[in-house]
Amino acid sequence: xxxxxxxxxxxxxxxxxxxxxxxxxxxxxxxxxxxxxxxxxxxxxxxxxxxxxxxxxxxxxxxxxxxxxxxxxxxxxxxxxxxxxxxxxxxxxxxxxxxxxxxxxxxxxxxxxxxxxxxxxxxxxxxxxxxxxxxxxxxxxxxxxxxxxxxxxxxxxxxxxxxxxxxxxxxxxxxxxxxxxxxxxxxxxxxxxxxxxxxxxxxxxxxxxxxxxxxxxxxxxxxxxxxxxxxxxxxxxxxxxxxxxxxxxxxxxxxxxxxxxxxxxxxxxxxxxxxxxxxxxxxxxxxxxxxxxxxxxxxxxxxxxxxxxxxxxxxxxxxxxxxxxxxxxxxxxxxxxxxxxxxxxxxxxxxxxxxxxxxxxxxxxxxxxxxxxxxxxxxxxxxxxxxxxxxxxxxxxxxxxxxxxxxxxxxxxxxxxxxxxxxxxx
Length: 426
Prior knowledge:
By secondary structure, this protein is α/β, with parallel strands linked by helices.
């Protein structure tokens, strides 16, 4: 036995059977375990259980490129009529953005829209041509998807756009059928009743090794977990090394001599170690994902710098929370960085499809900020307006808040004389 280890408790006779009957022993673990299970269920399932119910203002581009002349007796061509009808349709699931084709492509490429509906230049001419004998070429409406915004978000936009296109086809079909009257035979009548063909294409392609738009979410989650777990491991390891916590590995138990250091200096030590160790941990995250697993990734130097800064911001936040809250700091940090962050990240379920509470959290929760930054680097050519600029800003805010909060709390505790001294075991 190490000379630093305490001697075994002499004459220990207390048995688990006698302790398990004590209600006070059950109270705190039962309360924390059940409340945590209940809150986790509410928070995680509450964000994804009914996206269609909570869907509001999903941004979708609406492009009217129709250059045809208005039909006789009508004030506008059919493309303009269709676009006006889509914008004025009841419901608020979509935020239709009237853009040119070039503007729509730019917003697809920057991740500002989840999809697009394009009315082509010859839409009116092709539609009116169906009323002539022998016509078979149907007009087309094109639905563009944006898988870089996530499979669910892109799917929702595609469904909304397709539904709008189908409704436009049926509306136009009624007019054409009425104009044709009884002169249309069976085949022509079917063509006129539903004249528009809907063509679905990828508006902003991503690589085959992008997890259908999910690698950004999982990569950001790995950065969060690396910062969270690394911060807690450093916190516990330093406390054990300085003699403020027991060190146990299997049957081995050690309590080292207590080092005379105040809370502020302890926090500084932990943060410096976090800054150093994070270089290795964030590098290994990138090595595993890019080099070993082969996810599609470009801008690799930028991705490494972002990965390091993002992981470090989380790690510093964990150290500050542990310093402020002590024993329950790990639970508090888990809620801040993981429990509240995952459902409000917007990387799996669009923020437009989650309850308002999660949209509120998304303004400051780290997972949303890191997810946007990683997605911009991986899918949208590292464009600042694709979310990378905001991500850098919020990482900087995270650094400042962690340092100010952590050192303000430890300085306060030190001034009040709240020392961490633990008597040495006899």
